[in-house]
Amino acid sequence: MPKSTNSHHSNPTLFGSFVQQSLFIMDFLPDTFWKLVVAVFVLIGAVVAVKVGFTFNINQWQESKRKRLKEKLQAKCPHAVPIKEGGNLGLESSFLSPSGTTGWVCRRCGLVTHDMRGATYMLERYLNNPEQYIKQDRAFHKVHKKLYG
């Protein structure tokens, strides 16, 4: 048989090699694509972590936590202290009015109020139900321990 002079048919291995390389690239593409997607997400996560790391201020966070605990302490405070009167136990309001001011300050939690009606009502309620005072005082001491150690 005579040899063909047509150049593109003369080397069948070159054409076959091109097809094999194309198939190889198609097999390789999805694997590389998913690796690329994962790499992009890892990079985005790293950028977010670095941003959070630089903007997080431990002192600001501790001050915020302390402020929340102080507010919780004031909410849990019974604003009363037990007293002993001639052999009997009673309760006394823990609010004091510093001279020259119109506000009342709780000497246990530091809460400032300008209206004593609520405190008087709570004191009467605790006198009628001492178990409620004990429960409230325990809750107060629990938060106090968290705040002041």
Unreliably modeled segments: none
Derived from helix and strand composition plus strand pairing, the structural class reads: alpha+beta
The total count of strands amounts to 5
Q: What's the number of domains?
A: 2
Instruction: Give the overall silhouette.
Output: elongated
Oligomer: single chain
What portion of the residues fall into strands of 2 or more residues?
A: 5-15%
The number of distinct helices, counting runs of at least 4 residues, comes to 5
Spell out the key features of this protein:
alpha+beta, 3-stranded antiparallel sheet, 5 helices, two-stranded antiparallel ribbon, 149 residues, 2 domains, elongated, 5 strands
What would you note in describing this structure?
The chain is of the alpha+beta class. The chain has 2 domains: 9-55; 60-148, no CATH class. 66% of the residues lie in helices and 13% in strands. It is built from 5 helices and 5 strands, in the order αααβββββαα. The protein has helices at 7-10, 12-55, 58-76, 117-128, 130-148; strands spanning 80-85, 88-93, 95-96, 104-106, 112-113. A 3-stranded antiparallel sheet has the order 3-4-5, with no helix packed on it. A two-stranded antiparallel ribbon has the order 1-2. β1 and β2 form a beta hairpin. The longest helix has 44 residues, at 12-55. It starts with 6 loop residues before the first helix and ends with a helix. The mean pLDDT is 83.
